[in-house]
Amino acid sequence: MDENKYQHEKVANENPMDKNGLGNHLPSRNQTIGDIPEIKTATGAPVTDNQDTMTAGKRGPVALEDIWFLEKMAHFDREVIPERRMHAKGSGAFGTFRVIHDITKYTKASIFSEIGKETKMLARFSTVAGERGAADAERDIRGFALKFYTDEGNWDMVGNNTPVFFFRDPLKFIDLNHAIKRDPRTNMRSPNSNWDFWSSLPEALLQITIIMGDRGIPSSYRHMHGFSSHAYSFINKENERVWVKFHFRSQQGILNLTDQEAKKVVGMDRESHQRDLYEAIEKKIYPKWKMYVQIMTQEQADSMKNNPFDLTKMWLKKDFPLMPVGEFELNENPANYFAEIEQAAFNPAHTVPGISFSPDRMLQGRLFSYGDAQRYRLGVNHHQIPVNMSKGVENPHSFHRDGKMRVDGNLGSELHYEPNSYGNWEDNPKENLPKEKGGDVYRYDFRKDDSDYFTQPGLLFRAMTKDQQQVLFDNTARNMGDSTLQIKHRHIYHCYKADPEYGKGVAKSLNISIDDVDLNLPPSDSKENLKKANNLHPELNIPTKPVDPGREIHTNTEPYVLPEYDPWLL
């Protein structure tokens, strides 16, 4: 046999997911049966025949009297609930968080009250843009949502696998959704719409640089870091506030897929990340993450040139070093995916005493939108679904009453108003938050306050190796597809502002001469100037041919690295 042909076939049959080290797949067989296998109706009556419908004669029509067929079909027609508008495709598992360092000087939250304290938790990982049936191995942000069942109530940390986001104002969130989802005419995703939106927002460059880099497609959910991204606040026993960002560092290290590997994985297994997480836990290869926090005082926040609550920027680790807090391990797969993962409702508004919010505009928007979305998807009483219940609280006493699917006794005959003469429904003024700095309520143009969206992408670019920079150039070129020349020039300009070599590299991979790009667009220091810059060259509004630079450079293997030595964490 020809040796070159053998090597070619060997490479062709390799599975890029083998790098995750799980070995052979587990069998798909499910032999789980109920305690009493006989079928019964929803009201407990026996089902006499699940093979044949009742008919009027051997060959006649189905009878309306066949109540089992009616019940079975009616329930089936309603099995599917609305999928999440974003983060629809996801995987999850249960585990335990354990405190390993004392941070009680910063927060009174009971979950952190003593070293060694353990708290049960749930994690859900997801892609963002794809629908519930999309492939796992797509270039996209990953959701990183954690639910801690603390003894003071559920704390939901709803983050991503990137420390920043595309924009800083929640009014743009709906536009992002519409830009990256399906085009209303073609019902397909449009690179032009995607990149038109991204490149129209200079503040998106740092997020774009991360997602187009070699960490843009994790090889599994186990091999990626997590971030709160937002700033939150800690409140201590003296009612003093500091600002905080959370980091969750994968103890498995970082492993990623190249564009070419991901294309192969999608063709082989659209459930690659679901399979990896499930099989790792079944094989008792339990994934772990360490929790760190960055702390910022109010005085430090006041002295910062940039807005510290801007979601498009990191807090530099040299100024705000990462402090270890604890670690969590995922060690239990859900017994039923729909009940425990699809119905899991995460909401950043779910906090506990000692953990609160910040003036981050995006966080403020999410405090409403997440709970509102869950009430739509799951109903107003979704907190009664077991996976969402406050399992750690000894005596939950929720004021809410009635509503569809109330199943917990509805507080019985307990009086339901406050104030009253009987001492029921007492509030907890001791848990009031310290006062925040405020100001006049107005629609402030944040660009006039801070329009530097190029320094941090430049820092990240210069922290990359030459190979990582080339991967960034090539991934960007492939991903931009047939975007118009206007959009490609606009993005090259933004990259050039971050670092001239960044702009030149992207231009070269796109087969565009940097000399043809207008590098003197108006500064994006106001809404007016941003609009002017984005529309200065209508003559370039012509589709282009997709570009594939034809290179595959592997930069995707990295053992666990301490955060202070991670060049991707600024």
Automatic annotation (TrEMBL):
Give binding positions for heme. Answer: Y370
Entries under Pfam families matching the protein: Catalase, Catalase-rel
Q: InterPro entries attached here?
A: Catalase, Catalase_3, Catalase_AS, Catalase_clade1/3, Catalase_core, Catalase_haem_BS, Catalase_immune_responsive, Catalase_sf
Organism lineage: Bacteria, Bacillati, Bacillota, Tissierellia, Tissierellales
Query: Gene of origin?
Result: katA
Q: Which Gene3D superfamilies match?
A: Catalase core domain
Q: Which domain of life is it from?
A: Bacteria
- Catalytic reaction equation(s): 2 H2O2 = O2 + 2 H2O
Task: Outline the extent of the Catalase core domain.
Answer: 40-426
What's the protein here called? Catalase
